[in-house]
# Entry
Amino acid sequence: MVGQKNRWMAWLTGLMVLAFFLSGCAAGGGVGTAQGPAPGKVELLMIQAGFETVPDEHPLCVGVCRNLKPGLITPYTKGNKKLFGYLSPETKRLFVGTEGEYQKFVNLAVTQQVEEKFRPLGSESNDPQFWSMWSDMYSSH
# Structure
């Protein structure tokens, strides 16, 4: 009888440990937390910061997007004007923002603890299609 009681206690203890482990995973404590922000988190922060979404049907959008690496924020400088472009890896939408909007985005990302590796800044570009698209759509910005 004592042996059967010990087996029962060992089984119950194992079940409790398994339940504890699984409840920790479901609460977000372990598996997947270092993978990155939820899909769309960066895009949501960009919209909150004032970035514009370029419509897919704009004739220059395809060419500009072809030159951008998805998930990388690309700075563009022309004269004293600086803009930032971002091609969403999830939605393939192009986001464009001014220097002030980029700074707001960085502040929001820091506040919401979005790691820098999920908002990487790429090397500067001077794509003439980008500037044509921007002036065509948002020259009043």
In short: The chain has five helices and four strands. The chain has two domains: 1-29, 41-138. Strands lie at 52-54, 73-78, 81-87, 94-98. The first strand starts at residue 52 and ends at 54.
